[in-house]
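FYI - complex with NAP, inputs then prediction.
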Amino acid sequence: MKSHGYAAHDTKSPLVPYSFERREPGPRDVVLEIAYCGICHSDIHQVRDEWGGAIYPMVPGHEIVGTVTAVGGDVKKFKAGDLAGIGVMVYSCRTCANCKADLENYSMKQFVGTYNAKDYDGSITYGGYSNNIVCDERYVHTISPKFGDKLSGVAPLLCAGITTYSPMRHWGAGPGKKVGVVGLGGLGHMGLKFAHSFGAHTVQFTTSESKVADAKRLGADEVVISKDANAMARHAASFDFILDAVSAPHNLNDYLKLLKLDGTLCLVGLSEKQLPVAPFSLTSYRVALAGSNIGGMKETQEMLDYCADHGIVSDVEVVSVAQIGEAYERVLKSDVKYRFVLDMATLG
Ligand code: NAP
Ligand code: ZN
């Protein structure tokens, strides 16, 4: 099937228009015409090959919403005209214990990424900075009509949303809990919205003084400028849970010290560099350092439905495909409020 979009050809050059082929839709496949695709910091890490293993040309994008244009004969969940979404995965083994437990995001054979990955048929996957996509219906989500005209704000839920919802649920963010979120970017602002919505006492940590008012508007009970050592010290040994959504190297020990007995610091941010941990940061209050990777298909649908029912979407700046380079530069400067979303109608 013919597709066109924007691709990176190496680690440095700007993304440029690119035409390519996707597989012909099979009986279990759904074809989406893409309306919006979010720009995740993971796109930038991968375009710049910061995690290794980049496959060029690379069409990034894993926060996809659009309209179903065609379905294969065995497809049950969708029909032409339905709204649908695709996140970070487009396939997984379905047979390992984790896939069977609805945790395809932890598939023991590694799920197939929406882009920059090799599919089971040997083809390379291309993501959502494009006009259309073909995907097995098992990896396509239903998007509630309750979102109305807020579809651009739904796109980031497919990665930033589920990546923060899943650990907040797993570690029980809710009433009576003190929960921190580190970094007010695409993931961070969704983590903040969920922690607040689940009823936790929520504290936003930021390096950007300019984001304090926004953090409060987005649901923070308190905001701490993480560069202010005294402000940090006032929260020592007090948190049940902290979600760290920072994209670059930073000091984890500063946050481990803020956990109370048996508290957890969970990393979702994926800095390309290792982050040193002082053993005393862990032993003093028997705290845990953990990580979390997106969420399974079932939980992602649960998150989408929770958002539709609670009026939660991402705060977005909608941009044209011609502005991808500019948007990347602003994300790298932590100047995003709070997710860039590409309007695929601008692809022409
Ligand atoms: P983003 O929008 O760029 O947000 C990152 C935020 O981190 C910035 O807004 C900034 O917040 C803070 N920050 C940036 N540089 C910093 C530094 N040097 N020191 C301290 N704080 C800094 O990125 P994103 O799209 O939310 O993604 C965040 C990270 O999560 C990326 O590494 C991404 O690859 C990763 N990710 C992981 C998963 C997963 O499943 N685990 C899924 C998606 C993305 P302030 O201005 O508030 O300080
Ligand atoms: Zn992402």
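The mean pLDDT is 98. The CA atoms of residues 166 and 284 lie 27 Å apart.
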